[in-house]
């Protein structure tokens, strides 16, 4: 009898175990091939970096707690590749962060690399190339993490759509790279098209009849690679629109004609909901907004994205909000929604200031251990135009930092730490009298579990009266955006930091001639890039590298470090 009861108990426990593991986290296996393909993102054929024959790459859909097991084969033939999972903090797997020279060796042509990591938190994310100018070449896609089985979102909706915004040049990414690296530098210029889910129209405009321009009216069948993305909706429902921007350059404003949007998520974190007519979205940002289909169902509406912060030479991107049962081929009869003036920074700042954490969100520590001020300047090195941080232009080493720091390999990068402050007395409002800087590959070594404040200080660029927008993105962490200010940051400005309800994010913008303060806890062992998400700016050195707790990193795969000095180390140890 006793044995029977015991067996029954074992049976029940095993059954419960099987049921709970069936609903719990999954391992999702994916096999990707990355290759160049001919494609017409905006009606003019060019080459894009495609994944499994798709542009943009496939959307990854997973649940919080799942593990992605993604075998990536590089079929580019003549160049390396890596993929960064933007917004995924890579807790315990810093080697899977997908940053060439930082977290791993670039994957060589013909090689396969296994990215294995947990998507620990629900939210709207994306992925993109993090090597050279491969984001500009079209290497990106969406990564959507749903709440874990049995959990609920903190807002309700009847359906959802997903939009990935990007920008597109007719000049190929290799030529762009040569242009940027030339003396004198040739700027890549404004993109020819903005894309919504990889679709834009360069040869024609769907809204031509509303503008005075000479643009011709599009004649689209709907099956073209550049036909607009259609959002099919039913009347009187609430929809969630997930939006992310993987642009190489453009800052954007997005609106849905005649519809208001309620912002509920930013960078994978809940925000205190607020309602707006349109939202600003910088490269590296992601949002969820809710909108209600409360307009006349006998017509369709525009969804449009326009350029902000740079004098626009790029027409807006359009998608169509299609009210069923109206045909999707009927163009909206109202003009595209108005967008704020490209240089209305007060408008953008007001939007930034509306973004607050939802009550119950993680709170920032009330004190900091270290404060680093990063002065962003446009500089020269031997006549080459660069971007520099505290007068150092980031030049990535050939041996990735993660392996060289973990194994104590000497001479892999500059041993000297980069400065915690810019040059004293620097006037951020004027071009520098001496705009020269130097290359550097030094690392900001952060004390494990310490609280770090970073002040991103903007300045005048090389040209007088020019100061640009820079969206800064941190790998491996979220930070609290604790304050914005004008002019030069002074220590007394810290007294005004918002430590009550700052948004928890991975990307924060600095406005022209202003500063932005972020606070984070250095609690994720690894080596992490922190950089301007404008790809040509990063390429010209606009970034820094943080490292913390690297001795605690476990399970570094050989494939991540089999290059440069760590590659030599593997050969010497006979493990390669
Ligand atoms: Cu920038």
Automatic annotation (TrEMBL):
Domain Plastocyanin-like, chain residue ranges per copy: 34-146, 161-323, 434-549
Cofactor(s), by name: Cu cation
Molecular function GO terms recorded: L-ascorbate oxidase activity; metal ion binding
GO process terms (BP): negative regulation of defense response to virus; response to hydrogen peroxide; response to virus
Keyword Transferase: no
SUPFAM superfamilies assigned to the protein according to its UniProt record, in alphabetical order: Cupredoxins
UniProt EC number: 1.10.3.3
Primary residence: secreted
Signal peptide: 1-24
Keywords assigned: Copper, Disulfide bond, Glycoprotein, Metal-binding, Oxidoreductase, Repeat, Secreted, Signal
Reactions mediated catalytically: 4 L-ascorbate + O2 = 4 monodehydro-L-ascorbate radical + 2 H2O
Record localization: Secreted
GO cellular component: extracellular region
Keyword match Transcription regulation: no
PANTHER family with a match to the protein in the record: FI03373P-RELATED (PTHR11709:SF394), MULTI-COPPER OXIDASE (PTHR11709)
Assembly and oligomerization: Dimer.
Family affiliation: Belongs to the multicopper oxidase family.
NCBIfam families for the chain: ascorbase
Role according to the record: May be involved in a redox system involving ascorbic acid.
Protein name: L-ascorbate oxidase
Species annotation: Salvia divinorum (Maria pastora)
């Amino acid at each position: 009898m006793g044995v029977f009861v015991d067996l029954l108990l074992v049976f029940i426990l095993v059954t419960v175990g099987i049921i709970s593991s069936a609903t719990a986290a999954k391992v999702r296996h994916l096999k990707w091939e990355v290759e160049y393909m001919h494609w017409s993102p905006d009606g003019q054929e060019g080459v894009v970096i495609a994944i499994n024959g798709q542009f943009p790459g496939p959307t990854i859909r997973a649940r919080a707690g799942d593990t992605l097991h993604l075998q990536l084969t590089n079929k580019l033939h003549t160049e390396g590749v890596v993929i960064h999972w933007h917004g995924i903090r890579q807790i315990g797997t810093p080697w899977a962060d997908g940053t060439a020279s930082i977290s791993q060796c670039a994957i060589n042509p013909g090689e396969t690399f296994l990215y294995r990591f947990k998507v620990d938190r629900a939210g709207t994310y994306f992925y993109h190339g993090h090597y050279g100018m491969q984001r500009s070449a079209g290497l990106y896609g969406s990564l959507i993490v749903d709440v874990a089985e049995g959990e609920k979102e903190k807002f309700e909706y009847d359906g959802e759509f997903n939009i990935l915004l990007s920008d597109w040049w007719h000049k190929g990414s290799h030529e762009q790279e040569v242009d940027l690296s030339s003396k004198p530098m040739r700027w890549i210029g404004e993109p020819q098209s903005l894309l919504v889910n990889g679709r834009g129209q360069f040869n024609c405009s769907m809204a031509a009849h509303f503008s005075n321009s000479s643009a011709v009216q599009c004649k689209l069948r709907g099956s073209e690679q550049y036909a607009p993305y259609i959002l099919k909706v039913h009347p009187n429902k609430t929809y969630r629109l997930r939006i992310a921007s993987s642009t190489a350059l453009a800052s954007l404003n997005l609106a849905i004609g005649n519809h208001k949007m309620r912002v509920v998520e930013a960078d994978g974190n809940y925000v205190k909901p607020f309602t707006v007519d349109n939202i600003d979205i910088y490269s590296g940002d992601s949002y969820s907004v809710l909108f209600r289909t409360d307009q006349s169902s006998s017509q369709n509406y525009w969804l449009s994205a326009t350029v902000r912060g740079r004098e626009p030479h790029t027409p807006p991107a359009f998608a169509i909000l299609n009210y069923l049962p109206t045909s999707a081929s009927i163009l909206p009869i109202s003009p595209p929604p108005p967008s704020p003036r490209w240089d209305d920074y007060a408008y953008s700042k007001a939007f930034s200031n509306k973004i607050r954490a939802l009550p119950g969100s993680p709170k920032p520590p009330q004190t900091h251990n270290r404060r680093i001020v990063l002065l962003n300047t446009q500089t020269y090195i031997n006549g080459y135009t660069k971007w520099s941080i505290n007068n150092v232009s980031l030049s990535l080493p050939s041996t990735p930092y993660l392996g060289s720091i973990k194994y104590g390999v000497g001479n892999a990068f500059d041993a000297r730490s980069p400065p915690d402050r810019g040059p004293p007395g620097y006037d951020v409002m004027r071009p520098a009298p001496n705009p020269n800087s130097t290359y550097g590959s030094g690392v900001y070594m952060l004390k494990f579990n310490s609280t770090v404040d970073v002040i991103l200080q903007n300045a005048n660029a090389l040209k007088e009266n020019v100061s640009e927008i820079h969206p800064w993105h941190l790998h491996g962490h979220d930070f609290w955006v604790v304050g914005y200010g004008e002019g030069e940051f002074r220590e007394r400005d810290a007294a005004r930091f918002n430590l009550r309800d700052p948004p928890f994010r991975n990307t924060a913008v600095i406005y022209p001639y202003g500063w932005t303060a972020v606070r984070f806890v250095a609690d994720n062992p690894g080596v992490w890039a922190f950089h301007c998400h404008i790809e040509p700016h990063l390429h010209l050195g606009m970034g820094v590298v943080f490292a913390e707790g690297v001795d605690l990193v476990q399970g570094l795969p050989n494939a991540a470090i089999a290059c440069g000095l760590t590659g030599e180390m593997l050969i010497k140890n006979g493990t390669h």
